[in-house]
Amino acid sequence: MNLPRFVHVRQSFPNRAIPDIPRHVHRELAASGLAGRVPKGARVAVGVGSRGISNIATITRAVIDFWKSQGANPFLFPAMGSHGAATAEGQADVLAHYGIHEATMGVPVLSSLDVVSLGATAEGIETFVDRNAFESDGIFLIPRIKWHTDFVGPIESGMFKMMAIGLGKFSGAQNYHTHAYKIGLERMIRSVGERVFASGKVLGGLAIQEGAHHETAGLVVLSSAGGCAAMLAHEEKLLAEVKSWKANVPADPIDVLIVDEMGKNISGAGMDTKVINRSVYGGANCFADVPRIERVYVRGLTDLTYGSAVGVGLADVIHDRLLEQVDWNPTYINSLTASTPLAIQTPIHFASDAEALAAIAPTVGKHDLSQVTYCRIRNTMELMDALVSENLLPQLNPNAHVISEPFAMNFDANGDFELIETPPETLVHA
Length: 430
Fold this sequence. Notes:
2 domains; 19% strand; globular
């Protein structure tokens, strides 16, 4: 397999990182007035999800410390639907791998799949809440506000999604996705979230916003004090802001996107569909505001996906190594719970990078294979740095700058990419 030479490109986006996260969290929570709504000694249930969120342990500890400073007795619980292979132990283990456990947080982590039914929504959706959280004096969530991999709307992933699927645990996640198959995910999230809100148990949450560098760019309190409609409107505003910060791959179009790793900690769909321009329901290049990508090649799974290969079906070709890493039990659970079986269909696969690329390059519609363009990224969450083929340079976006001399993308004796610690850092473009 003869590849063109590559260069290292780096994208430039504003870095919105909050410099002192604990101080910022304390200031925001103190100004919110939430502490005045619970008596001294109140048990506050703090819910944390399963995504790979920057600084999540620091943020969580700051929230816990705030509630303690106000005389409350907080505890932690996983708010993550069917993740962790839909077991209480697995969900606690997910949090522990992010550094969130009793020894680091100073409070208990109560992980259980036991739920309480809140009755049905107007659409007939029976609504569930984690029993430990429901039996507390108030629920406080730590969601990340982000675009969703499966739909587009004014609210996507965030506070109300966590109130629905996260709080509903495995029982809720199964039930909600079944209804969402017919009425749509956004309508389901709004309906279930509003029913949870009506229970009066939710105090609010600390919404995390991340910038293009995956940095903690916003930590904003969403309070239930102003009513459900106000909290929804606040979340909509935060999501619109996050979308305006979004990074994409550095060029458009791209013939072959090479993704070194995918996993649940990277995205709910293993790979961010609004980066690779694929749908979990089938179909390619379905998002008009995302660069066009003809083929996606994925090389492996992350360690923190616990063997779940949800989203593997979004790839056109994969390395045999990835298949060997798959644990089909959590993969089946995650995919079938979300009603997205297409997303775990096994793509064609090969024993080496060279074989995979040789097989897929002729399928992009170019007779002259020397004109096939390539872009290689680590994963769909880390997009500031990429390796692109020289013939892709005319398609670079204005934010992308070449920071190396051209170099060969060599293969080892097994036909796999040789390790590239750091491409040559000779600046050739300002």
